[in-house]
Amino acid sequence: MNTIKKYSGLLWVAIGITVGYFNIVVMGIPKLQSGKQEDLVFAIINLCILTPIIVGGLVTFGYYALSGDYSNK
Amino acid sequence: MSKNSLRSVIVASSVGTLIEWYDFYIFGSLALVISTKFFPQSNPTAAFLSTLATFAAGFVVRPFGALFFGRLGDLIGRKYTFMVTLLLMGGSTFLIGCVPSYESIGFLAPLMVLLLRLLQGLALGGEYGGAATYVAEHAPKNERGYWTSWIQTTATVGLFVSLTVILITRNTLGTEAFENWGWRIPFWVSILMVMVSFFIRRNMEESPVYVKIKSEGKVSANPLKESFGNRYNFKFVLLALFGAVMGQGVVWYTGQFYAMSFIGKVCGVSSQQTDTIMAIALLMGTPFFIVFGKLSDKVGRKKIMMIGLLLAIICYRPIYEKMFHTIDCSTKIMVAENIVSKKTTSIHEQSKDSIITTVTHKVFLDKTSIDLTQKDTLNSMGVLKTNLDIKKSIELNTTNYWMLILLVFIQIIFVTMVYGPIAAFLVEMFPAKIRYTSMSLPYHIGNGIFGGLLPTVATYLVTTAKSTKVNNWYLQGLWYPIIVGAICFIIGMIYLDKNDNKIED
Fold first, then answer.
1. What is the spatial distance between Cα B28 and Cα B375, in angstroms, rounded to a whole number?
2. Cβ–Cβ of B235/A12 closer than 8 Å?
3. CATH class assigned to B222-327+396-505
4. For a tag site, which of A25, B151, B242, B332 has the least CB within 10 Å?
5. According to the model, what pLDDT value does residue B401 have?
6. Where do the structural domains in chain B lie, given as residue ranges?
């Protein structure tokens, strides 16, 4: 189980980066520039709130997992 | 501690927390009226979106309230801190009911409302962690799930009470008076409830665990640094967020808020029926918070939370598919159709433009009925511009009405499974000296941000899918809770240990 805990850390880092890319490039900047108010509200929520938490949190979580912090001693 | 004393602790804590949830949700329940009072009416859609953004701002600042009041709770004690949050919440709510309208004071009105809404969010960020910690620290170790589950009922009951107070005020005053000034009453009622709760809480003792660590000189000097600057503790904060609370947040808001928005806004059921469907399902589901809280003392928190999360992820699409087809009138056989009213109102004196509002009533074979309201613009040249955005209000027949209650009830059972045991789970994950701070932050990010933003994000996904004519457009909003829930489930299954990561005080 410790091996799974450790190496799935890579997965969380990858998910964090992928979500960050998707949120900024696909769901963020284009919506910000669309000119529609509903797109603007969504883009602001996405870029300013959800993305930093997901990317920062998941990457750190993955890094800790990969470093063996969650392994049973 | 005797059972009777424990009961008074629960009552005092729960009543205050319930009032805070009431205060927090009343703003959302009155969003439509508020948008007409505090925002310029030249663009009603923009006004409504601004109101929703103000409502969402309350969720976004919750983690900051968790940090500020959590630190205070670990430094000066649980009791005093959550009395401050109670007064802050009550005062802010009362004052929202006193703010003059946009017509009277212009842009100062939305600004004041936004400021008060932010104070509400800060207060709630501090309240929940305090109440959960306070109750858990009074309860016997092997019954923490049961006793803290009473705190877990307060969010749902607070939502239920807010809907009920609005319904009673609206029915007593009539719609016109309610929309003119009566909407302020539910905000004013809050101050009375807060005063009662304040006097109950004033006589409570400080948490015995906190008193003990204080007498031993073990109170943390810097709870923020110890919680988040210490890697050993911070890894558990992240685990709590990504392995439990994030999933719990999306399940909570899907079952109780998005379901309401889906039935009312996406499917077009009348607001009266939507409110009663939600109220009945909430009432039926609430006791299960206690059931699953108690069960978690016996079988462990992780099992129940993860089963609830998995069931939610698997069942959301079939449930919402069934909800949509239960309401959808396009496949029903119509037996009568007539125009019940048609009126013309002038919208601009100089240009002589006017709006023609036509209400068509249709009845179907299964006794479902629908009112379609269409607003067309007639300009001064006599040219009619047809508006394709037709507002519908569906009245369901009894069978379908109860079917929807059942479908919402099933979602609330998922909510109770993930939410019932979580207060005890979070409390037991962190040491007493930094507990208030450490548990509050992941809770308010998971519940307040991942969950609280769900209705806005999911509604946006549905609206976009509908306008781009995506197949099953009505299910697209579910991707957000399903993906977030699935990630949380996998992390929880791998990383939470079978002892729920419990630590002993």
1. 26
2. no
3. mainly alpha
4. A25
5. 97
6. 1-219, 222-327+396-505, 334-395
**What is the dotted CATH code of the domain comprising B1-219?**
1.20.1250.20
CB contact under 8 A, A49 and B449: yes
Per-residue confidence (pLDDT) for residue B43, from 0 to 100: 66
3-state helix, strand, coil in chain A (%, to 5): 80, 0, 20
Mutation test of the interface with chain A: which of B59, B233, B238, choosing the one with the most A Cβ atoms within 10 A? Answer: B238
B338-341 long-range contacts (CB < 8 A, ≥24 apart) are B340/B371
Q: CB B453 to CB A50 under 8 A?
A: yes
List chain B residues with CB under 8 Å of A38. Answer: 49, 460, 463
The 10s digit of each residue's pLDDT in B36-77 is 888 876 666 666 667 777 777 888 898 999 999 989 989 988
- Give A52 to chain B, closest Cα distance, Å: 12
Kindly report the nearest CA distance between residue B229 and chain A, in angstroms: 13
Contact A49 B238 (CB under 8 A): no
CA distances from B293 to B106, B148, B296, B420, B489 (A): 48, 7, 5, 5, 19
Instruction: Specify the pLDDT at position B218.
Output: 85
pTM equals 0.89
- Which among A50, A57, A72 has the least Cβ separation from residue B241? A57
Nearest to B251 by CA among B92, B122, B422: B422
For B225, the enclosing helix (H) or strand (E) is none
In this prediction, residue B46 carries a pLDDT of: 66
Q: A17-56: b or e for each residue (b if 16 or more CB lie within 10 Å)?
A: eebbeebbeebbeebbeeeeebbbbbbebbbebbbebbbe
Minimal-distance CA residue of chain B relative to A37? B46
* Å between A6 CA and nearest CA of chain B: 10
Of B291, B276, B43, B261, nearest in space to B153 by CA: B291
For residue A70, the chain B residues in CB contact (below 8 A) are 235, 239, 495
Q: What share of chain B is helix, strand, coil (3-state, %, to 5)?
A: 75, 10, 20
Residues near B73 by beta carbon (within 8 Å), at least 6 away in sequence: B81, B82, B126, B129, B130, B133, B436, B437
Calculate the CA B71 to chain-centre distance: 25
Q: Cβ separation of A38 and B449 shorter than 8 Å?
A: no
Contacts of B49 in chain A (CB under 8 A): 37-38, 41
The values of phi and psi at residue B430, to 5°, are -125, 150
Find out whether B501 and B429 touch, Cβ atoms under 8 Å: yes
For residue A64, give how far its alpha carbon lies from the nearest alpha carbon of chain B (Å): 7
Give residue limits of the domains in chain A: 2-66
**Option in A5, A49, A64 nearest B238 (CB):** A64
> What are the beta bridge partners of residue B369?
B363, B395
CB of B250 closer than 8 Å to CB of B316 = no
Average pLDDT over residues B423-448: 91
pLDDT in tens, B140-164: 988 999 999 999 998 888 888 888 8
Q: pLDDT-derived band of residue A56, with 50, 70 and 90 as boundaries?
A: very high
Shortest Cα distance, chain B CAs vs residue A21, angstroms: 16
